[in-house]
Amino acid sequence: MNRRALASLVACGAALVATSAIAQPVNADEAAIRAVIETYFKGHATGDPAYFRAAFLPTAHIEGNRGGKFTSWTVDEYAAGFKGTPASDESSRSRTVDVIDVTGDSAMARATLDHGAAVFTDYFVLLKIDGGWKIANKVYSVRRKAG
């Protein structure tokens, strides 16, 4: 192998190592953000309001349009709507994290919640505070299924 080819291989290897080292914190942050959203999902799956309080900052708001009317809840108001029991159709519901975008200590995520007759798209704004991620606010859109 000539020196130029060897130098190119070394440079490519160094670039891969550098890229991997830079990307690693983002991957760890993405995993931590996903875990927070999974905690939020557990609130829906179990009906236990404690999961929502664990996932959100206490100052967070949940906002969207329901039946053509703007709604805005504090975390406590939102959590109060859950009584500690799963929905009767829980086994047929699904929830997925679609997108996570991280910049420093701020992030956004989009999730889809297929809840029987309705599909919710949730948009989360998250902050990393004291080394941990929390949902700072959520807006949502709801689409009723035909039928």
TrEMBL record:
Signal peptide: 1-23
Keywords: Signal
Organism domain of life: Bacteria
Protein name: Dehydrogenase
Organism: Caulobacter mirabilis
